[in-house]
User: Fold this.
Amino acid sequence: MAATEQDMTPYWADKAARLELIEVPAYIVASYDNVAHTYGTFDAWRRISSKEKWLRVHNKQEWPDFYDPVHQAELKRFFDRYLKGEKNGWEETPKVRISVLDPGHKDEVDRIVEVFPPNGYDHIKLHIVDASSLSTMSSKKSGVVSYNVNGGSATFLLPIDHEAELIGYSKLRLFVEADGADDMDLTIYLEKVDSAGRAIIRETYPGGAAPTRTASYLRVSRRALDPVLSTEIDPVFLLQGEQRLSPKEVVPVDIGIWPLAMRFHPGEQLKLTIEPFRNDPVNLPFGQAAIDLPKNSFTFEPGTEPEMIHLAGGGPATMPAWAKSQEVMPPSRNKGVHHIHFGAECDSYLLVPLKKL
Assistant:
């Protein structure tokens, strides 16, 4: 269905949670950099109707956070209060606690705030003004940045010369053109880098580390926004029909970027990356784990002894043919060259909740 029915039809609408109907007490735990869960978790926090709801945003990968004895004990207190009716003081738990990520330094964990996003983080426009820079001042001179979809990308940097924090939702407004295709599949990253533009790695789970960044994705032909659900900082796609691009056509697109809380120090930089979406298949655990499994399927009947194969890991190419045949990944429409227009009437900019401290 993901490959053949891509509009928001009754089939998909039936599977979307009616979050506003949720009224039971809720303890919601979120993170900033989970490709599957980040946006939906924060969206649930905003939309559920529960009068008794708590949000805790952690700074790790979810499994080590969940199995931390301190967090297990806290979760048990929540369940004891609302499943057993115990008067254990749970209501005194702060309603909203967030982590502020600080790669290269020490993250701040469990900062108590009134709401999320917290008050006082007004959005500012950071304009694309040349082939590599962001600026608080827009450019009256028009320009274009281009990259080939086979390995190319565009990056823009804003040097930070003071203590600052970025906390909340961001949005990217771009004026784009496809050269050699009638559509564009885009990936957007927002992250903190050092003074030389190098990624700052942080540990997210024992033995695992990666750049800390928030992201978003867009197929440009699906750029139409839902006029009811969209806001200035959180555009929501309508997902009804397509608007393919004509040769030399330049169109504006609004791309919402997942929530983030990041601390900046003098000499560090905010980095925006625009690149073609690369639909590399992800078939966990195949290609990742060293496991034994049936040669011809995922499962087998109890009591039978199917022929087994051993996967030693090594990437998607190592997965069995029957798993490969079940991939659901519509082919990319990226071809040729992507053009990002900026300046004058094509004012491409990043809208971010960046606050000077």
User: Anything to note?
Assistant: The mean pLDDT is 92. Residues 164 and 264 are 5 Å apart (CA to CA). The chain has three domains: 14-93, 124-278+333-356, 280-329.
